[in-house]
Amino acid sequence: MTVTAHEVTTADASAELDIRKVTGRIGARVAGLDITGELDSGTVAAVRAALNTHKALVFDATGLDDEGQQRFAAHFGELTTAHPTVPSLDGSPNILRVDSEQGGRANHWHTDVTFVLSPPQASTLRSIVIPPYGGETLIANSAAAYRDLPEPLRAFADTLWAVHTNVYDYAVQGRALGERHEEHREVFTSIKYETAHPVVRVHPLTGERGLFIGGFAQRIVGLSSSESRKILDLLQSYVTRPENVLRWRWSPNELVLFDNRITQHYAIDNYDDLPRRLHRVTVAGDIPVSIEGQRSYSIEGDASHYTTVAEVAATTAA
Fold first, then answer.
1. Does the annotation mark 105 as catalytic?
2. 293 dihedral zone (left: phi>0; alpha: psi -120 to 50; beta)
3. Which family does it belong to (predicted)?
4. Could you confirm whether 110 is annotated as catalytic?
5. Is residue 32 situated within a structural domain?
6. In total, how many domains does the chain have?
7. Whether 54 is catalytic
């Protein structure tokens, strides 16, 4: 099933927002905006424009419940279900419970659900239970990472495709898996997905190029596993440069909206065994496109139960 996403560009933005940058390259606070109710089209356009610029936005979510989080996310397009394999929050098919006590410690760099053909275009995370220390979320600007590449490496990356899968080596995360985490892994991999995406993806709204890799990217098409790992690690090192990363320390009643097309994120496992719980709602995305206009292709796994495919207007590669 194909739907048209509610996409707006900077030129459409008519409402003014109080935007306060958090770092030079990524992240901004949106102050004074009540996101608990319906937003008019001008405000939605302004938020989209801010997201295009800053990649990740932080909002005060005081008074926002699960229904409100879904309503806010739906301003930007049709919602996905919670996850292709992980069950949703009871009674809320669009909400994924990210719970440290239920195996939800995503302590690796990734972009959400890149192992399917059309990963989410945007993700929202809302703080529910926050530990007294630690538990930050890192969000990286993959467009800035691409621009940081030396020209020969950038030209090489432009030619590459990577296979993303939900069946990856958990052992590399540096933490022994407990029984609950093993159970979570079994659920996470209960349906195997493999999809080939361009290593350099063109953002459909801004035309920016970004490195579209992360933890689910396991090998480069046409190369061996060992060759792939060296190349992916090299490119990934540019994504995670400190200059490209927002380190967000959560407070109660906050919502973070980030552009899943051009960021990666990492939930830091630095809060001992304390509880940490967020609720995630994601917005259906388009099929990634390379700088030559080629679209990603599925190798294994049908995700039609999880997401529609959003159609967006073509743009010129930056």
1. no
2. left
3. Belongs to the TfdA dioxygenase family.
4. yes
5. no
6. 1
7. no
